[in-house]
Amino acid sequence: MSVNTRRARLLRHTGFYVAAFLTTAFVATPILFALLGGFKDNQQLRENALGLPSPWNVENYTDVLESGAFWQQVFSSIFIALVTTFIVVICSAMVAFVFARYAFRGREGLFTLFAAGMMFPFAVAVLPLFIILRSFELLNSPFGVILPQAAFGLPLTIIILRTFFRSIPGEVEEAATIDGAGPWLFFTRILLPMARPVLATVSVLALVGSWNSFLLPLVVLQKSTWWTLPLGVTQFSGQYASDTAKVLAFVMLAMLPALVFYAFAERHLISGLTSGGTKG
Amino acid sequence: MTIKESPRVSPVTGRPDRRAGSRPRRRSGRPGAGTLATFIAPGLMLFLMFVILPVLFAAYVAFFRWNGLGGVPTEFIGLENFRNLVQDDVFLGDLWRLALIVVLSLLVQLPLSFGLAMLLHQRFPGRTAFRLLFFVPYVLTEAVTAVLFRLVFSPRRGFADSLLANLGIDAQIGWLSDRDIIMFVIFGILTWKFFGFHMILFLAGRQNIPDELYEAAAIDGATGAQAFRSITLPLMGPTVRMIVFLSVIGSVQLFDLVYVLTGGGPFHASETLAITMYEQGFQRNQIGYASALSIAMFVISLVFALLYQRYVLNRDLQGSLTTAGGNRS
């Protein structure tokens, strides 16, 4: 009996591992191709596509790392992501605070308006956005990317934060009021610190959204001064179309920040992205 | 509960307002309209200017012929853009390809992620590592992923061809240039990118099913397969319906990955709604026509979302988890 169940479990485990390793191969092969391909030269890539590099060649990686363009794009991506996140989280928190805790005429209508924003696919707005940004002279400016991104991030962020702010008991606010705190003090000193975990979640959503965004930067940033990494990678792959190994190195380095971020903030990232998914 | 709707009798009524003596507040602890407006104003302005205004503007421009120059459109042409749209083979092809992607996702990708989620729900050593690993593609930027796969599928003995040759299949396939297979290549890449995300959502749904149900079923003598059919499947219903929704809405907006991978080619064979819109609007300056296409995209998402909520999701909203099984008469 016990031998039998042991064998059954072993068999089942074997099945698990076969399926899991097949999926792992499916997931990892393209990434390993980029990682190892970056260490090859183009001749090796042609003749030894699957094997390990021999000799290992760091030139592709160092070339990219020594180029000013790469670091400029990393900087733009980070700058745009951070400012977008800051703006969307601050604006949403203030709106969500009022929606969650005060009654006033038109509140439900306003909230519906914001929530309806979830229904607007970004691609629908990008063309008129371009025309509007052009008339504001925001083309080729990082703020031409930041402001629309922040605006499109508002609905989901407001919905998540409002739900959280509603869950904070009224007694907390009464206590604050007794201590003489007005809405601003209550909001900045008590509510926001209490909301730290959910603020982390919405910040992760905004950061990742901005980091990955492509269509809007493509349209707005026509000059390379403020190009973000996704734009840089696509442009680089066109410019060095014949130098596959170098493009692979660039691709790998462009994926690295996201992978590092995932490695360190895996819990926040997964819960943020999946909560964004479930509430979307 | 919060302090809204019903007028609250505050325990601190009558306390002098410490902040400003200028204006007595009607009710202590209740900020005036001015304060509320300051809280809402930044977000509302941002939203009106960069979300609502563009969408309204697109709806307006869709009735004009306009090349984007000269401030505002002037040549009103009524519904002509929309009439041209429904006769445009590229647009109709976009819809057809959208349907193809949706059907393939529902029939292949979602069952695959579901199966993996069930697998990784089981306890076996290393499962956390697998979960983390399978989520990695979702973390990567779509545009960067597309560049990577352009190189994987590069012509003339690229990586994919070498891989096949190593498995004994010696064929040079035009992965990205053969219009008969391009959509399947794209679907494969989409699966690579998104199955981990769906898997994590399925896992979360599965973890929400209490173990007691399975224990009770086991006591009643149910086999694993029976428990799966009568407990797991019905209780996973809400998760499944939500993922289907996300998957469809995501497919309507598909742009980054396909645009960088193929640019919509060869000869429109992989073009999506958003790519057609981009080409018409930004490459050919047919702003009116492209706006009509934007509005069509919007209507497609909206109609789908409303119908889906009305006929599919409302069961979840009613909290009728258990009636949502396979046996609905």
UniProtKB/TrEMBL annotation, chain A:
GO cellular component labels: plasma membrane
UniProt entry tagged with the keyword Cell membrane: yes
Residue span(s) of domain ABC transmembrane type-1: 74-265
SUPFAM superfamilies referenced in this protein's UniProt entry, alphabetically: MetI-like
Name this polypeptide is given: Raffinose/stachyose/melibiose transport system permease protein
GO biological process, one term: transmembrane transport
Signal peptide span: none
Positions of transmembrane segments: 16-39, 74-99, 111-133, 145-165, 198-221, 247-265
Organism lineage: Bacteria, Bacillati, Actinomycetota, Actinomycetes, Glycomycetales
Keywords of this entry: Cell membrane, Membrane, Transmembrane, Transmembrane helix, Transport
Localization per record: Cell membrane
Keyword hit for Phosphoprotein: no
UniProtKB/TrEMBL annotation, chain B:
Domain ABC transmembrane type-1: 95-308
Protein name, per record: Raffinose/stachyose/melibiose transport system permease protein
Keywords: Cell membrane, Membrane, Transmembrane, Transmembrane helix, Transport
Transmembrane segments: 33-63, 95-120, 132-153, 181-204, 243-267, 287-308
Keyword tRNA processing among UniProt keywords: no
CDD domains assigned: TM_PBP2
One GO BP annotation of this record: transmembrane transport
PANTHER family referenced in this protein's UniProt entry, alphabetically: BLL4140 PROTEIN (PTHR43227:SF11)
Family the entry assigns: Belongs to the binding-protein-dependent transport system permease family.
Source organism of this protein record: Glycomyces sambucus
GO CC, alphabetical: plasma membrane
Lineage, uppermost ranks: Bacteria, Bacillati, Actinomycetota, Actinomycetes, Glycomycetales
Cellular localisation: Cell membrane
Record-linked SUPFAM superfamilies: MetI-like (SSF161098)
UniProt signal peptide: none
